[in-house]
UniProtKB/TrEMBL annotation:
One of its GO terms (biological process) is protein export from nucleus. It comes from Menidia menidia. The keyword Cytoplasm applies. GO terms for molecular function: nuclear export signal receptor activity. Belongs to the exportin family. One of its GO terms (cellular component) is cytoplasm. Keywords: Cytoplasm, Nucleus, Protein transport, Transport. Its main location: cytoplasm. PANTHER family: EXPORTIN 4,7-RELATED (PTHR12596), EXPORTIN-4 (PTHR12596:SF1). It is found in: Cytoplasm; Nucleus. This is Exportin-4. It comes from the Eukaryota.
Length: 840
């Protein structure tokens, strides 16, 4: 290790002295992988055993390479290269830094402080324009993109560089660069010049500073409770004795003033000062819109601001002190529950939302980010309680309910999120009269005192507009008009928003039931275009349901019963959609009016089977072992699977691997759990189809008793699958291998296990098709069974019975006449030897 570190340090030192390029791109990834392996694979004790001078040299080399690769990665951005080798190498080095810093206690105190600051400063400089940075400087005659090229970039920087920003800011937090970031941001937020090139550089600077600030101050919890990062909290606590609380609150509450003009500006909390810098940037933007200077603004900057505010609000707004061992006094005073600071900033953010929706309604991404900020403000009841006290909230609700401009011009997806926010806000604490007027309940007629907002009704106008539309006598004639279709789409999007917001299971159940009825009554009459729209709506419903129910914890029996009802309806919905493939009363001229006559029918549209299989893939993870104890849900699920296998066996080999294994495991579970009880558990423990993606784990078998109907359904599904394999003749396909596995299962069921005689026909048909497909394997099973017999009498009876079962002079084939003869022989076989070998 010492020799390697020494040679490595000498190599980097030589390259640094001899070449201005430092490291070739072909070498960058390899060198970064070497460093990563050194840091991650060797125990910390090995690194600490290095001589201190050599260890310091190694860290200096790592710092040098990180800065160098960071600059080269930034240049790759400018060149818009396809192969970003320096970017890959830079990411690997940042991961190495994070590994070192997370184990900081094993190393000499403070040994990473200056290197981390140097790496962070280099990252900032690469993304800032001169004079603070190097972004817009020519490098080897190459300068940054012009405006048109920048606009062609499709992927958002906050997604594209999310891992890199996360790693940088983890390093940044640990070594206190809050003040530097805040200083850069406050300096950048002055829109004093109207020169377009200067503004473009300024907006790009603000873009990167806000991204860095957002990742610095807060994490993305991904379903967990958002918490202030411990490093940020410790930093604020450490410097709290130097902070003047009143001045800090003044800095926070005066976004329209220059922070440096407030006396005592430097004696304020750095975390709050960083937020106030973003608020000042936001205020500049808002004032520019009020002064009709919108054309000078950048929608990207607007997106960055609301993204930052949303990320910040999730973590800091109404901070819950019970979640922390110690809390920063400035943070709790400014953002804690029942504080004037929290009330002020909620009002400010709400005004920001309303201003953005008024000005940027045509900018879909910015409007969507803005509404997501509004959702964040109301998704927690404590925050919603403050929001609904703001008069602007009620004005927004009234404007949306009446579809007044410009809100009615928002895209359908944004309107969905806005309806979700309005519904979530309705769950805030209100007196009964206010809540009644908000939801427009019928009881508002009996109120005994004047309403504060007599015209506010969130749901009633939606219902009324929809009813007025569809109840028109000429609705069938006008239904294809663009205005009518827009109104219907807006209504459906609003319903989806309500479904996303509400946690009332009976409401969800009713929404699913509407789709079930539409599919049941209308699908057979719909042409191709309308059918596809229904498919898309159903898939959206399933995606929303899955997203909002996978992580939900259901602690009581009634909640579990509700989800059982939901899933039962979803299975019925998928079955109804599948019926389109064989019951179709639509006008064929309408179906193919706009199609190329020479195009094959199979390529004209996505089939209902494709949609249903996708839906099954969405729903499967929700089917827990407890829910599968409901017999009707099991029956509906297996009916659907059998339905798909019988009508569209050609679709099964094309399924994604996880879904294919899930379906195969479902069939195996249905066949083995009923006939043999706990014996089936032992068989399933070795199942090749038992994958984590399936909600039905091994323990399900001991918790549920499947009916003979389900076992019969599974057997009926095997025959068309085996016939499909015989047509394809692909002996290395997963389906061919799976049918070989099922041959043994069906063989054991008929010969070795007790089973319901009603299943003999289904099991016999399945066995015959599987024997036709795997004749050699069938012979091996028979030979193995006979060789295991020690009783000569039983051996002879079995041998005679098997000889009669396959007495035909020709090999078994997929022929109806041969199948009928085999089934007749099978009845005699079961009668003769059925009781000899059955497992007790």
């Amino acid at each position: 290790m010492s020799r390697f570190a020494l040679s490595f340090a000498r190599l980097i030192g030589f390259v640094r002295r001899s070449s201005p390029i430092e490291i070739e791109d072909s070498e960058a990834v390899g060198i970064s992988n070497i460093i990563s392996n050194l840091i991650t694979m060797f125990p910390r004790s090995i690194l600490m055993a290095l001589p201190s001078e050599l260890f310091t040299s190694f860290i200096n080399c790592l710092t040098l390479l990180s800065c160098s690769f960071g600059r080269s990665a930034a240049l790759e951005e400018v060149l818009d290269k396809d192969d970003m080798v320096y970017m890959e190498a830079y990411d690997k080095l940042l991961e190495s830094w994070l590994t070192l810093i997370q184990d900081e206690e094993h190393f000499p105190r403070g040994c990473f402080v200056q290197p981390a600051i140097q790496v962070f400063n280099s990252y900032i400089q690469c993304h800032l324009a001169a004079p603070d940075g190097t972004r817009n400087l020519s490098v080897n005659g190459i300068s940054s993109h012009d405006e048109e090229e920048i606009n062609e970039i499709q992927e958002d920087d906050r997604e594209l560089f999310s891992d890199q920003l996360l790693l940088e800011d983890r390093v940044n937090r640990l070594h206190g660069q809050l003040q530097r970031t805040q200083q850069h941001l406050m300096a950048a937020s002055d829109l004093g010049s109207v020169d377009r090139k200067v503004l473009d550089d300024l907006y790009e600077d603000i873009h990167w500073l806000i991204l860095v600030s957002g990742y610095l101050l807060a994490d993305d919890p991904q379903g967990e409770t958002p918490l202030i990062p411990s490093e940020v909290m410790e930093f604020s606590i450490k410097h709290s004795t130097e902070v003047d609380i009143n001045t800090t609150l003044q800095i926070l509450g005066s976004p329209g003033e220059k922070a440096s003009s407030i006396p005592g500006f430097n004696r304020t909390d750095s975390v709050i000062r960083l937020l106030s810098a973003v608020l000042r940037t936001s205020e500049v933007e808002s004032r520019a819109t009020r002064a009709s200077l919108t054309e000078l603004l950048s929608p990207q900057m607007g997106k960055d601001i609301v993204w930052f505010l949303r990320r910040w609000a999730k973590t800091y707004l109404l901070v819950d002190e019970k979640l922390y061992e110690q809390i920063s006094i400035p943070l709790s005073t400014a953002f804690g529950a029942d504080t004037e600071g929290a009330q002020w900033i909620v009002g400010y953010l709400l005004e920001k939302v309303i201003n953005n929706l008024s000005v940027w309604s045509s900018e879909t991404e910015l409007a969507n980010d803005t509404v997501e900020l509004l959702v964040t403000l109301v998704e927690k009841r404590e925050r919603a309680n403050i929001v609904v006290q703001c008069e602007s909230w009620w004005s927004l609700a009234k404007q949306f309910a009446s579809r007044s401009p410009p809100l009615h011009q928002l895209s359908s997806s944004v309107q969905r999120s806005l309806m979700k926010a309005l519904v979530l806000g309705g769950f805030a604490n209100m007196d009964s009269d206010t809540k009644q007027q908000y939801w427009a309940e019928e009881r508002h007629q009996t109120l005994t005192r004047p309403l504060l907002h007599p015209s506010i009704q969130v749901l009633h106008p939606l219902q009324q507009r929809f009813l007025n539309l569809i109840n028109q006598e000429n609705f069938a004639q006008i239904s294809q008009e663009e205005a009518v279709k827009r109104e219907i789409v807006a209504t459906l999007e609003a319903l989806c928003g309500i479904a996303e917001a509400t946690q009332m299971d009976n409401t969800i159940n009713l929404i699913i039931e509407v789709f079930v009825e539409v599919a049941h009554k209308q699908i057979c009459y719909l042409g191709e275009t309308k059918s596809m729209k229904l498919y898309e709506a159903c898939l959206t419903l399933l995606q929303v349901y899955s997203k909002n129910n996978q992580s939900r914890k259901r602690s009581d029996a009634s909640a579990e019963e509700d989800q059982y009802q939901d899933l039962l309806l979803i299975m019925e919905l998928l079955t109804n959609l599948l019926s389109k493939e064989f019951i179709d009363f639509s006008d064929t001229d309408e179906v193919f009016r706009n199609q190329d006559p020479g195009m094959p029918a199979s390529s004209r549209t996505v089939s209902a089977a494709d949609v249903v299989l996708y839906g099954v893939n969405i729903v499967l993870p929700l089917m827990s072992q407890d829910l599968l104890k409901f017999p009707s849900l099991c029956n509906q699920y297996y009916k659907l699977i059998t339905f798909i296998c019988e009508i569209f066996p050609e679709k099964i080999p094309q399924l994604p691997e996880d879904l294919f294994k899930s379906l195969m495991f479902s069939l195996e579970l249905g066949m083995t759990s009923y006939p043999v009880g706990l014996g089936g558990v032992k068989k399933l423990q070795g199942s090749k189809f038992n994958v984590k993606a399936v909600g039905m784990q091994q323990s399900v078998c001991s918790l549920m008793r499947m009916s003979s109907e389900i076992s019969q359904l599974c057997l009926e599904a095997l025959s068309p699958l085996a016939e499909q394999c015989a047509k394809n003749q692909e002996k290395d396909s997963p389906l061919f291998i799976a049918t070989r596995h099922f041959l043994k299962l069906v063989f054991d069921m008929l010969v070795l296990q007790k089973h319901n005689t009603e299943m003999t026909v289904a099991a016999g048909e399945a066995l015959y098709t599987l024997v036709c497909l795997h004749q050699a394997e069938y012979s091996e099973l028979v030979e193995a069974l006979l060789s295991s017999q020690r009783d000569a009498v039983i051996y002879q009876r079995l041998a005679d019975a098997f000889n009669k079962l396959t007495a035909s002079s020709t090999p078994p084939a997929m022929d109806r006449k041969q199948k009928v003869a085999f089934l007749k022989s099978l009845e005699e076989f079961v009668a003769n030897v059925g009781g000899l070998l059955c497992v007790k």
